[in-house]
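As described in the Methods, two query proteins were run sequentially through the folding procedure within a single session, without resetting any intermediate state between them. The first query and its resulting structure tokens are shown here.
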Amino acid sequence: MENVSQAKGAEPVAVLTLRTVKRGNEEKFEAALHDFISESLHSEGQLGVHVIRPPTGSDSREYGIVRRFISREARDNFYRSELFKKWEEKIAPMTEGSPVRQELTGLEAWFSLPGREATVTPPRWKMALATVVGVYPTSMLVPWLLQPLIGKLPPLLQAFFIAAGIVVILTWAVMPLLVKLLERWLLPREEA
């Protein structure tokens, strides 16, 4: 397995792949995805995988798979691998159309707008401003909420739990809500 320390000049890369699962194949796809992720995380150059499932109660059957690599070379090697080719063959009967794949940079992972093409993202300054609007109140709320639970822990552990709390709340609550509320502002009018 490759050392996770990066080669000089190499930067981590995140790739979002969108897949629409055929109706009635959701359980089979979930099982296949679980097995594939378990097997593929041992591939050289992997930094992790995050699965974005369709919202509960919605009619959407679109899955987002965000995979992080230590470099572009590791990304390319993975998508050319036999393991990945076998995965594509296995799920082809369970999915509709071709996958939509996009490289994510920085904040884009939080700003995929519902019902939009994966390639449509807001300008970076708008993403940064919206993120500040989400982070500011969250960074005040989380320490206040956690203090009674972690107040007697060493400062480094307190900082860890506060950071983890902020990330969890931003990822699953604050940013999805903000993106939905600010959708018309985030995208230029001709794209909205």
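Immediately afterward, the second query was submitted; its sequence and tokens are:
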Amino acid sequence: MQASSPQSNLPLVRRLEAVGFRAWPAASVVYDGSWQVRLTGGHPSKRLNCIVPLDPSDHRDMEQRLERARKRFESYGRPLIVRETPLAPPVLIDHIKADGWRMFETVDVLTVDLTALALPDTLDYLPSHDIGRFIDASLAVEGESIALKPALAEILSAIKPPSGFFMKEDPANGAVAVALCVQDNDLAGIMSFAVAEAHRREGIGTQILSSALRWARISGARQAWLQVVSTNATALALYRKFGFRKAYEYRYWWREGRG
């Protein structure tokens, strides 16, 4: 089964993919035809290190183009990954399947109409513009290595649309929740949303997400979007409570044993 389907709203997919690229920019982006080749040497994020084909009909010279990309990824010390959205050529996906690639993760892209959303009248949390403080909080909440700080600083500093960094910090426990909201014209993307494991099911995630979405609406956004791994049942339940619904999904593919 392909990530694409006859029911896919391809214009919406193209628009959400474009704002997604701007909301989480890779350090290096080159195009091979309509295939976007994204690489970021300092950060292992799959979204920042993958091929994203953006035209269902662009599948010429697949083997040669995949080999060119493999060598480029190898120079970065990265495995070659294909990100399959509904814009990916089915012929390409059939080819990599037959060649021994496997799909290892599915991500749902969700949207909600902000104009119809019931949100609190006030912001429980005000957005910050302190990138360094947000990075420290995000790494602490996610339990990730402080060694990623320079790469995260580069990524966040490269975001061009207006952004709000939302954090809850406890004097005794440090950072307990974070969210990044990137407003791109009438679309607002929720990125890096996380609650520390010890503070889940306390309503903190609802508060932070409500503040980010209300800020986005006040700032002129009419629709919000986010991406969540399809097996993350807890996060999906929270997003459904807010009215988020699935717009499409994408999948990651790689071939074990190859760079």
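The domain at 112-248 is CATH 3.40.630.30 (Aminopeptidase). We note this only descriptively and draw no conclusion about the first query from it.
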